[in-house]
């Protein structure tokens, strides 16, 4: 039941709290060990904040985070240090997350030194070289600086920086969205191989459903700070139940032109509402093509099991069976 609420303040001399941005507003999810959980949703839905809250890089307002049975939100700082090594993050834009004044060796040594891993320079070099091999970078990369590499290679440096500490969980926030499409598959495949070799657990955050499709075992869809649907990956892509998931999916082009012509296309009305002032009832009701008076505007749907998919929609069964038809979308 993780919540992350940021205060909105105003005032010249004294800060006055005038409201809260409910970036994450009560999310429950489990990332199974050795598997990949794909978390998707539009920018501003709270998925990055949730990722950071899981790693304790942002303090949750309330709720618990359990890692390997240990509750992290109330852990003493010295105990948290030991846990931090086991959970690492990969960022979207390697150029802005890597210090341009540090060469690769210094970038990779920093974490080792902070966590006191490796006895001396020789041992650290061995760990670093093994890590470079694992991410497919040559050893001469060590003396070079981030700007000397291509985008794809820079993301490999970002991955190496996370891996060098020997983590168990990696939270990857939009790991390929800053990269050319041709490079994206290489990086996704690398993450996949590393998972097999090292038994890593991933939470992969992306705005693009296509990115997480092949790497994820489970996919969760977020809208305005809440999880609206969660299912095993193949099931979610075969039979999305939540209207929002269906809308996201209908925006992904299909390579086959015949299918592309006949498939469902759902246009969402209006913009994403502000997380400072989310709609009452179902948060999606202001944009949902299936919204029904007055229940959708009055009652917040809870995540419930519908044939193996968890979905937060009052009308999931009726929409899936076609008993409820989408009304015309006002744009
Ligand atoms: Fe749409 Fe209502 Fe379902 Fe929300 S509960 S997704 S508004 S049909
Ligand atoms: Mg984000």
TrEMBL record:
One of its GO terms (biological process) is peptide transport. The keyword Kinase does not apply. It comes from the Bacteria. SMART domains: AAA (SM00382). InterPro entries: AAA+_ATPase, ABC_transp_ATP-bind, ABC_transporter-like_ATP-bd, ABC_transporter-like_CS, Oligopep_ABC_C, P-loop_NTPase. Pfam families: ABC_tran (PF00005), oligo_HPY (PF08352). Residues 1-249 form the ABC transporter domain. Keywords: ATP-binding, Nucleotide-binding, Transport. One of its GO terms (molecular function) is ATP hydrolysis activity. The keyword ATP-binding applies. Belongs to the ABC transporter superfamily. NCBIfam families: oligo_HPY. This is Dipeptide/oligopeptide/nickel ABC transporter ATP-binding protein. It comes from Phytohabitans houttuyneae. The lineage of its organism: Bacteria, Bacillati, Actinomycetota, Actinomycetes, Micromonosporales.
